[in-house]
């Protein structure tokens, strides 16, 4: 198994980052505008993009500390993987430790997804620091896979 890992620092309180990760409006403001579903533990959130989308089952939420999802529908490579955001305060920053874990193998699509996750994490940072993110379809295009 292989994982995608990222770390960003956000100059906003952990609670603000947590809200952006656990509310439908918050998620739509940094990841994709086409977001709907149930963001409570056990619920499923549907994220849609131009080339397709993903359904995430909410596995865990710990206020201002952690959010964990399992991919239950989407590209074959994503099914069964987990997306985890761990939050911690360090000085004036909320540190977001991001993992997209459990890929069966390292394939080219994983490289693409790693870069896209980085752009969306920067959108999350921008949202909680300025009030405006860059969600899909306003995100940075990196290839024909979007």
Tally of separate helices:
3
Strand order of the largest sheet: 1-7-6-5-4-3-2
Terminal CA distance reads 25 Å
Order of helices and strands: EHHEEEEEEH
Could you say what the CATH architecture is?
2-Layer Sandwich
Structural class, by secondary structure, is alpha+beta
In the CATH hierarchy, the third-tier topology is known as Alpha-D-Glucose-1,6-Bisphosphate, Chain A, domain 4
- What level of helicity do the residues show? 25-40%
Shape: globular
Strand fraction: 35-45%
Total domain count: 1
> Biggest sheet: strands, sense, closure?
7 strands, antiparallel
Number of separate strands: 7
Over the alpha carbons, how many angstroms does the gyration radius reach? 14 Å
Runs in which pLDDT lies below 50 for 5 or more consecutive residues are none
For CATH, the homologous superfamily is named as: START domain
Rounded mean pLDDT is 95
The CATH class label is Alpha Beta
Structural features, described:
With 146 residues, this protein is an alpha+beta fold. It has one domain: Alpha-D-Glucose-1,6-Bisphosphate, Chain A, domain 4 (2-Layer Sandwich). The protein is 27% helix and 40% strand. The protein contains 3 helices and 7 strands. The protein has a 7-stranded antiparallel β-sheet with strand order 1-7-6-5-4-3-2, covered by helices on one side. A hairpin with an 8-residue loop joins strand 5 and strand 6 (82-90). Helix 1 (14-22) crosses helix 2 (24-30). It is globular, with a radius of gyration of 14 Å. It starts with a strand and ends in a 16-residue tail after the last helix. The mean pLDDT is 95.
């Amino acid at each position: 198994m292989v994982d995608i890992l990222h770390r960003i620092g956000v100059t906003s309180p952990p609670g603000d980052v947590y809200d952006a990760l656990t509310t439908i409006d918050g998620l739509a403001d940094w990841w994709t505008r086409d977001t709907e579903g149930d963001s409570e533990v056990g619920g499923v959130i549907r994220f849609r993009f131009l080339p397709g989308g993903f359904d995430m089952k909410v596995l865990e939420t710990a206020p201002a500390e952690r959010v964990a999802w399992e991919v239950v529908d989407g590209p074959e490579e994503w099914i069964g993987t987990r997306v985890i955001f761990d939050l911690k305060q360090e000085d004036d920053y909320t540190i977001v430790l991001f993992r997209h874990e459990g890929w069966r193998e390292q394939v080219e699509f994983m490289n693409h997804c790693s870069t896209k996750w980085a752009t969306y994490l920067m959108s999350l940072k921008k949202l909680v620091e300025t009030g405006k993110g860059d969600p899909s379809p306003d995100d940075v295009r990196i290839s024909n896979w979007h």
